[in-house]
Each structure stands twice: as C-alpha cells, then as structure tokens.
Amino acid sequence: MNNEEELNKLLELRKKAFEGGGKERIEKQHQKGKSTARERLDELLDAGSFHEIGQFITRRDDNSEPDAEKIFGDGVVTGYGQINGQTVFFYAQDFTVNGGALGEMQSTKICRVMDLAYENGAPIIGLIDSGGARIQEGVYSLGGYGEIFRRNALYSGIIPQISIILGPCAGGAAYSPALTDFIIMVEKQSYMFLTGPNVIKTVTGEEVNFEDLGGAAVHLAKSGIASLTAKSESDALRLCRNLLNYLPANHAENPPFIAPSDDPQRMDKELNAIIPADSATPYAMHEVITRIVDRSSFLELQATFAPNAIIGFARMDGGTVGVVAQEPSVVAGVIDIDASDKICRFVRVCDCFNIPILTFVDSPGFLPGVNQEHRGIIRHGAKVLFAYSESTVPKVSVVTRKAYGGAYIVMSSKYLGTDFTFAWPSAEIAVMGPEGAANILYGKQIKNAGDPEKERENLTELYKEKFLNPYAAAQAGHIDEVLEPAQTRPVVIAALKTLHQKQSQHPPRKHGNSPV
Fold it and tell me: Is residue 1 part of a domain?
C-alpha cells in the first residue's frame, strides 16, 4: 500500500468515525431538535481548538454477541480544546450509538480524559446524553461507571467539573453529574432520574411522566440538583462558557480577572433608601446585590431552589466573588433545610477554587416547626457553620438588616473566621426579635403594669434603641465598620484587595467530618 492509499484509508476511516451511528440515526437526532456530539462540541469550544482523542476505539469482541455492531468512538467523543482561551478536556456522549449507553471502552475513554484533565490542571466538561449502562456488557459497564465515579470524587476540589445534561441521564449515570461541581440542564429535553416512570409505576403505583419526574424545572426548583437551566442546547453551551469565566483552571490558581468597565468607587445613593422603615416590610436583596457588584456580572445559581437564599458568582472590580445572601421577600429570608444545603455547598465550592466570599445578611433566624426539627434542621444548619469555619478564602460580610440568633452566627460572622464584617445603620443584631426579647427580659414588669400592652410597646421600643442596632456590636468589635449603604461597593472592593494575598492554614488532618 503506497502513501496515497494509506492516506485515503485514513480519511475514509475518519469520515466513518465522524458519522457515529450513521446518517439515519443522525437525522433522527436532528428531528428531535437535538444536535450530535460533534456539533455540540463545535459550538462549545473556541473555533479551531478541537482535538480528539481515541477516535478509532471500538467495543471489545464479545463471544456472546459475535455479530454486534462495532462503531468507531464507541458512543463518546473525547478530547481537549479551549473555551475563552482556557484549555479544557471534554467528553460528549453520542446518542446515535447505542443511545449513548456506557460500556467498558466508553468508560475507558472518559477516564482517560479525566486523568489528563487532573494531570494538566484543567477543567473537565461532560456532555451527557445517555440511557445509562449498556445492558449487554453487564458488569463491565457497571465497573466502567464505578471508575468514573471514583475519579469524580478524587478530582473534586482540584479541577472544576461541569456536567451539561442534553438528553436522558438515567440510572447510575445520574451519579457522575451529581458528583460534579455544576450541572446545566436543558428545559423540556434533559432528564435525570435513578428509576424511570415505568419502574416507579410497577413498584409504587405512582404515575408520573419524564418531565415531572426528572426534568430541568424539577431539578432546579425541587431537588436542587441543577445549578442552571437553559431553554435550548445552544443556551446551555453558552451558559457553560460564561460559567468558566468565573472559575480558575484548578485549585492552585486564582480565578480569572476581567478588566472592569464599572468604576470601583461608584456609590449608589439608591441603596440608602432601599431598606424599608418598618423592619417587617420586605425588599429585594437581588437589587442590593446587582447595585453593588460590577454591572451585569451577577450569575445566579439554583435560582428557584430554596429562593429564600441567594447564591451565585459576580465580579468586584473585575475579580470573581461568590455571593451568598438571604432574600427577605421570600419567607422573610428565613434559613431552612434546603437553604442550608444550598449555602453550604456553594461556600465549599468557592473555597475549593480560591474564590472570595461576599455575604449579605438579613435573616430572622432558622425556620421553626416540627417538620424542620424532625428532618434535621440542626444537622443541616451545622453544615453552614462547618463550611464557613473550614473555608480559608477571603470572606467579607455585610449585615443589611436582621441578624438574629443562630442566623447571625452561621452567616459568615466574625466568630467563624470572616475577615471583615460590615453593617448598615439599619442592621438589627440580636439574639431574637424585639417583641420576644422584651417579653423575656421585662415579662414581670409588663404583667404588673397598669396597661400591659402599652408597657410592652414602650419596653419593646426601649429594647430596640438599646440593643437592636449595629452600634452595640461595633462597640464590642464584632462589627468592623458601620457603613452608609451607598459606600458599600468601594469599601468591599478595598477590603477584597487588602485580602488578596491572604494565607490561612488548618491544623494537619486527613479531612474534616462535615455533617451530611
């Protein structure tokens, strides 16, 4: 065979590999409104940066299925490329080959790029479109999933791991995305569940469709598994590109800096009037956040899951920060089990990847009730304590209004290692609300008064004046400065710049034992 024949053979084999499961299956994929694995990668990666690994790998010969179809790539496209100029490794499951089902050799390819990502300190991105384990390969496909899960766990906190769910993600396949840092789902197209509707109906008698069981809306609002959702594949891929703008390549690097167009000294006078005079009246913490961070930089995560808590990435003078807050317009910003889990996970992600944490505090406390207590609000609230206490990144907190009892302590208080704690004049830092405190402190005096209700009202106002303000905490050194709200942006930026070289070490240990 001469050189030309050899080259023609290579081109022919490469063409066959590009066709995946064949033109007919590709057409079916398109008819569903879905792109192929390679089309998705062309859209995700910077133009011209795609490099494939393992293009000609096929499933092993199997005596039990001697006539089984062997397709180049074995149902997954793996390789490396760039996003926004940053090197990333990827795997994209090809639904045109066995419905994207995972077998031994597909697992081998995925594990290879995960190892390369770890060894080279680069993010790993999985484009998931699979019916789960390849049944005909039995224990080999199950072992393949186990190898992937182990790498998800071992490389956690070392390199960013992102899963983009672009179709079904069923059975054990759902565990790998659940182990990654971020999950992006497509509305009305992607699904995640361990047992499908048919199995559920057989076992429990419950009838449910794919969307209501494990669709994007369900996992964003109810389970909290999804970080972000998008209306289309293209939007999901753009979200991934945007998300990577906030993340470092690995745990040893700082997050990327993007030259700001927003003045770091900008002061927003509207903030001075944003807190209502009546402390029972809600306001929008989202508006507070967007007025303080760099304009148009806030990327909220898990927006509809536990909406009484807010998490997301933003920029302050071009640098990435993780924002944590309560939303007083949703159940008064109270902290419940879901909010605790949401905050804890995000704080730990920020700490893994050297992202400073900016916390806005306005919470009357933890949600009371038998249901919350029996479901473990103590344990879940302790997760937030553990996460803030364990984190070593720069931490800045701003108390905007209510900071009562346990909610004050867990939300990045100075006692948990926060570097700078600020408060607005509207801050109410106390063990509990004024009415309850007055009843406890002055109960006898109120009971014995000629007009108990009037006495209660007077003593409640006395308590507010004496204790329910930021100055008592500032006098004790628990608050570093009481700020005019309009000054918050420049003051926080200055604090974060001061903390840029912060170094903090924990006592030597294998790892902490966080409540779960």
Answer: no
**Residues 201 and 305 occupy one common structural domain:** no
172 is catalytic: yes
Name, in order, each residue with C-beta under 8 angstroms of 512's C-beta and a sequence gap of 6 or more.
386, 390
* Residues linked to residue 162 through DSSP beta bridges, in sequence order: 125, 182
80 and 164 fall within a common domain: yes
pLDDT digits (tens, 9 = 90+) for 226-268: 999 999 999 999 999 999 999 999 999 999 999 999 999 999 9
Element (H or E) spanning 81, and its range?
Answer: strand 76-83
Q: pTM here?
A: 0.93
Backbone angles phi, psi at 193, to 5 degrees: -165, 155
The reply to whether 75 belongs to the active site is: no
Rounded mean pLDDT of 182-199? Answer: 94
474 in the same domain as 439: no
- Domain holding 294, by residue range, is 269-432+469-498
Helix (H, G, I), strand (E, B) or coil at 373: helix
**Based on the domain organization, do 290 and 391 belong to the same domain?**
yes
**Catalytic pick among 171, 214, 319, 433:** 171
Mean pLDDT of the chain: 91
- Token reading at 480: 């570093």
pLDDT score recorded for residue 110: 95
What tokens appear for 435 in the block? 């009415």
Helices 452-466 and 434-441, axial angle in degrees (round to 10): 110
Q: Which of 406, 449, 472, 494 is catalytic?
A: 406
Coil, strand, or helix at residue 320? strand
Residue 212 pLDDT exceeds 90: yes
**Angle at the Cα of 245 (from 224 to 45), degrees rounded to 5?**
95
Residue 112 domain-assigned?
A: yes
Q: Is 314 helix (H, G, I), strand (E, B) or coil?
A: strand
Compute φ and ψ for 384, nearest 5 degrees. -65, -45
> Alpha-carbon distance 330 to 490, whole Å?
28
224 is annotated as an active-site residue: no
Which among 22, 121, 172, 224 is annotated as catalytic? 172
**55 and 72 in contact (C-beta within 8 Å)?**
yes
Q: How far is CA 207 from the centre of its chain?
A: 31
Catalytic status, residue 171: yes
Q: Cα–Cα distance between 227 and 231 in angstroms, integer?
A: 14
Tokens of 49: 């940066």
